[in-house]
Amino acid sequence: MADNPVLELLLRRLEAADGGLDSAELATQLGVEHQVVVGAVKSLQALGEVIEAELRSTKCWELTTEGEEIAREGSHEARVFRSIPLEGLVQSELMRLPSGKVGFSKAMSNKWIRVDKSTADGPRVFQVVDSIEDEVQRRLQLVQAGQAEKLAEKERSELRKRKLLTEVILKTYWVSKGRAFSTSVSKQEAELSPEMISSGSWRDRPFKPYNFSARGVLPDSGHLHPLLKVRSQFRQIFLEMGFTEMPTDNFIESSFWNFDALFQPQQHPARDQHDTFFLKDPAEALQLPMDYVHRVKRTHSQGGYGSQGYKYTWKLEEARKNLLRTHTTAASARALYCLAQKKPFTPAKYFSIDRVFRNETLDATHLAEFHQIEGVIADHGLTLGHLMGVLREFFTKLGITQLRFKPAYNPYTEPSMEVFSYHQGLKKWVEVGNSGVFRPEMLLPMGLPENVSVIAWGLSLERPTMIKYGINNIRELVGHKVNLQMVYDSPVCRLDIEPRCPQTQEAA
Amino acid sequence: MPTVSVKRDLLFQALGRTYTDEEFDELCFEFGLELDEITSEKQIISKEQGNVKAQGASDVVLYKVDVPANRYDLLCLEGLARGLQVFKERIKAPVYKRVMPKGEIQKLIITEETAKVRPFAVAAVLRNIKFTKDRYDSFIELQEKLHQNICRKRALVAIGTHDLDTLSGPFTFTAKRPSDIKFKPLNKTKEYTACELMNIYKADNHLKHYLHIIENKPLYPVIYDSNGVVLSMPPIINGNHSKITVNTRNIFIECTGTDFTKAKIVLDIIVAMFSEYCENQFTVEAAEVISPNGKSSTFPELAYRKEMVRADLINKKVGIRESPANLAKLLTRMCLKSEVIGDGNQIEVEIPPTRADVIHACDIVEDAAIAYGYNNIQMTLPKTYTIANQFPLNKLTELLRLDMAAAGFTEALTFALCSQEDIADKLGLDISETKAVHISNPKTAEFQVARTTLLPGLLKTIAANRKMPLPLKLFEISDIVVKDSSKDVGAKNYRHLCAVYYNKNPGFEIIHGLLDRIMQLLDVPPSEEKGGYVIKASTGSAFFPGRCAEIFARGQSIGKLGVLHPDVITKFELTMPCSSLEINIEPFL
């Protein structure tokens, strides 16, 4: 570090100094800018404990540009005085001098000069006294010499009002010897280089210590969306449990598959314009499986398969109405219908996770579209106990072990049950899913054998995701108003691991 | 799910004991109800209209209980208490009886004019009833709950209840021109014609929702007594003349509608619930209804139906092993009086008129399971052996998503529904060129169409995140929808992959490089040959002229890439150049 003489000098002075020294004083003594000394202090600090440096702030006075000019050349009034020859000076000429205007009035009030208006070529200015004391210049020179404290408070404030002086806060270092003080410091290497490795010079060189409390540089990377990370985990869980994925790539569905096939009557409130998006174009389904449609019609209007039916006039045109599917159960109905056509019957486990649409009132937890997760098992002799057993396994994989079941009503399942889990944060039971056994009025018209039961359950994808990632407003998660920073920062999704801090808000 | 609001202390009185909130919540849970909220009139008003308005309102504790949508028998305090008392085996389910009057039967004659507007009517009489203020309020509230639920906001059924002592039968249910109907409606002091009433009620926050049911019909339904007094103009309003009060002793109930089954259910429910307060408890006086064809029927039906269920079926469906006698006991607790008959495995179940929701053996199975206690059922795993398969399109999507992120692009998740403007005007297209499916009943412009391209969603995502450091690199792999007459519903989804690059420079080479990477991942070589891919100069309304290319792969056009047109950038409220790529990934399955 011999290339920095100030640093060398600083260390020598410090060695000789009693206790320590002030960086600003040192700068004055060495005749260098304060910043140069500060730079030397900082590079010494980076070496470890060579020196101790304590930051101090002191108030001091500094001349303004105009103040500096006056300290150098005298006050405006003094300059006016000196510019007047014995024979006097025409006032208009005097006013044209650089200090003319300001200096004239000051010199007048100091009674250094007078104006004679009787002269032929206009008013003329004459000196009144022989010599003057330029008090302003003297004072400013004192400040410049670092002796501002010799001036009275009143004198300083007068100079400040004339914008010749300003008060500044000076940040200085009080430098003292550190534990590893030495006057001979050698330059530390910042990084290992290929040359050092090949020459072996790294063996003899000291290396600058790393600041391990600083943050690293994040890699440039792409990111997966949190909701879809959770979707991947749910897919994984279903696949681990042996469930086959149903095709759900048909947002547009007929009322028939969305409602009628599920034994949901045509006057059901869900079929209202207020709850469901119907289509203007294409308004109606072009084809329906008519044999099956007739069985569905009969079951609704007259009953059959052991059912009383709903006893109303079932209308084909109502079933033809196209809509945006309101649940993925429409896709499950199609899958079960396909299964029923395969003879002999083979047991099946199905799942799907996809978008559904509701024409409902939007708020912080409800959007017009959301994702539904659905699991379905079709086999001989399935019981409610089986449904509960599967739900227990499924939710255990989500890290939810405390479950209880509440009787509920769904148009297409009977028995039906809502699944509740104990929420540690909220200290209460919250609904986490809905489930049931599909009604025979739905399954038998499809052609499934009479002793085959189908158990099913569903939940939303958004709700567990909001809880997992601590998101209160669904718009920050789904849709274009997403907070990309949140996407960038979101951790990987492990559903069976508790979130870092338990969330207390109730989502969805 | 309907919510029934009952006074806690009245409910406990009817239940013959008190509960803590937790105990009652537990009881509800077990029975399939939900104690949704504990509140008071005062709290409700203060929440909705502020503390000042709430001053002086009642502090009486109210329980708001969510009731399953098919249990019309639980929509009032009387029904709730009865259901829970039977469940807890503190009382036996009452037997509802229809009796003939000592004198002449009340008659309701339907004329043929009703056929086109509201063809069905049923009626009954509650004789010597004793109301109190609370009972009266509950009676009115039950009608409102029924109207909102099973009656589908009065469209299927409308209920009218009248002080029989102010009227004289027989009654006539007919339909007349609105200008020919004139009467003093409920709570009004003068007579109006039906036309005037329909106008007045347009401003009535409650009644305005029902006007549409008859508004455009040439004839309006109306019921008269033998003196020409108007009982009601269903489904809008009753007459003031026969208005019931706390002091009414004899009530004539008529239900008119377009759904005969539901009208009968509604009448059964009302009389079953409130015959409790008649001098002869649970006894209802019959009324005769004469159809336009002269056919006479007697109501209420109050029919009990018998179903035969095998005990082993219940055990097999629930997954329990209870004796037939125990199962019969469980069902009886659910108001389904049951006994073991025949070979000792048959259970005869009596379905009361209040349980119209029981239409199949599976409904009986559920009630047995509820009475057994869902949470007492042994959980078991089904032995269903299956091999899992992924849906190929989703499998490909999952693989590509990961590699898109590995390529430095961030995944967006945008709405499938959007405005016409998003997919047409803003991209320089006419909506007719898009093959988009249109929604008939959107509440706002955000839900006019299903998207035909993923690009607008990504551009809107960038617009909402303009403060983020550049460049922004986004992608989405999701479905778009277009009309397709070869599909049964006339529309088809396509799985698209879209990516955008937004920075101070257009970065076409970056989007182009991404395409090359995607093709590398899909194992499609750059080649003019049939198995390869190639891009060819093209045009597109969304792209800057000369900066657009069409992508051909596996012998077909799969999409386009290019630098977006400045007009498109501006219309999406963006300021920087942007390049994009959108392809259909289905050819790579």
From TrEMBL, chain A:
Task: Give the gene name.
Answer: Farsa
UniProt KW tRNA processing keyword: no
User: Which Gene3D superfamilies does this one have?
Assistant: 1.10.10.2320, 1.10.10.2330, 3.30.1370.240, Bira Bifunctional Protein, Domain 2
Lineage at the top is: Eukaryota, Metazoa, Chordata, Craniata, Vertebrata
Protein origin, superkingdom: Eukaryota
- Signal peptide residues on this chain, from the entry's feature table: none
Q: What is its EC number?
A: 6.1.1.20
List GO molecular-function terms, semicolon-separated. ATP binding; metal ion binding; phenylalanine-tRNA ligase activity; tRNA binding
Kindly provide the name given to this protein in its UniProt entry. Phenylalanine--tRNA ligase alpha subunit
- UniProt family annotation: Belongs to the class-II aminoacyl-tRNA synthetase family. Phe-tRNA synthetase alpha subunit type 2 subfamily.
**Domain Aminoacyl-transfer RNA synthetases class-II family profile as annotated: residue spans:** 229-499
Localization per Swiss-Prot or TrEMBL: Cytoplasm
Query: Subunit comment for this entry?
Result: Heterotetramer; dimer of two heterodimers formed by FARSA and FARSB.
The yes or no answer to whether the keyword Protein biosynthesis is present is yes
GO cellular component: a single term: phenylalanine-tRNA ligase complex
Query: Which keywords does UniProt give here?
Result: Acetylation, Aminoacyl-tRNA synthetase, ATP-binding, Cytoplasm, Ligase, Magnesium, Metal-binding, Nucleotide-binding, Phosphoprotein, Protein biosynthesis
**Annotated GO biological process:** phenylalanyl-tRNA aminoacylation
From TrEMBL, chain B:
Q: Which InterPro entries match?
A: aa-tRNA-synth_II/BPL/LPL (IPR045864), B3/B4_tRNA-bd (IPR005146), DNA-bd_dom_put_sf (IPR009061), Phe-tRNA-ligase_IIc_bsu (IPR045060), Phe-tRNA-synth_IIc_bsu_arc_euk (IPR004531), Phe-tRNA_synthase-like_B3/B4 (IPR020825), PheRS_beta_core (IPR041616), PhetRS_B1 (IPR040659)
Task: Name the SUPFAM superfamilies for this protein.
Answer: Class II aaRS and biotin synthetases (SSF55681), PheT/TilS domain (SSF56037), Putative DNA-binding domain (SSF46955)
Q: What is its main location?
A: cytoplasm
What this protein needs as a cofactor is: Mg(2+)
- Judged by the first EC level, this protein's enzyme class is ligase
Domain B5: start-end pairs: 302-379
Q: What subcellular locations does the record give?
A: Cytoplasm
Molecular function per GO: ATP binding; magnesium ion binding; phenylalanine-tRNA ligase activity; RNA binding
- Give GO terms for biological process: phenylalanyl-tRNA aminoacylation
Record key words, sorted: Aminoacyl-tRNA synthetase, ATP-binding, Cytoplasm, Ligase, Magnesium, Metal-binding, Nucleotide-binding, Phosphoprotein, Protein biosynthesis
Output the Gene Ontology cellular-component terms: phenylalanine-tRNA ligase complex
Q: Which reaction does this chain catalyze?
A: tRNA(Phe) + L-phenylalanine + ATP = L-phenylalanyl-tRNA(Phe) + AMP + diphosphate + H(+)
Q: Determine if Glycoprotein is one of this entry's keywords.
A: no
CDD domains listed in its UniProt record = PheRS_beta_core (cd00769)
Q: What is its EC number?
A: 6.1.1.20
Which Gene3D superfamilies is this protein grouped with?
3.30.56.10, Bira Bifunctional Protein, Domain 2 (3.30.930.10), Phenylalanyl-trna Synthetase, Chain B, domain 3 (3.50.40.10)
**Pfam families under this entry?**
B3_4, B5, PhetRS_B1, tRNA_synthFbeta
Please report which protein family the annotation says this sequence is part of. Belongs to the phenylalanyl-tRNA synthetase beta subunit family. Type 2 subfamily.
| Assembly information from the UniProt record | Heterotetramer; dimer of two heterodimers formed by FARSA and FARSB.
PANTHER family for the chain: PHENYLALANINE--TRNA LIGASE BETA SUBUNIT (PTHR10947:SF0), PHENYLALANYL-TRNA SYNTHETASE BETA CHAIN AND LEUCINE-RICH REPEAT-CONTAINING PROTEIN 47 (PTHR10947)
Give the protein name, as stated in the record: Phenylalanine--tRNA ligase beta subunit
Q: Which organism is it from?
A: Phodopus roborovskii
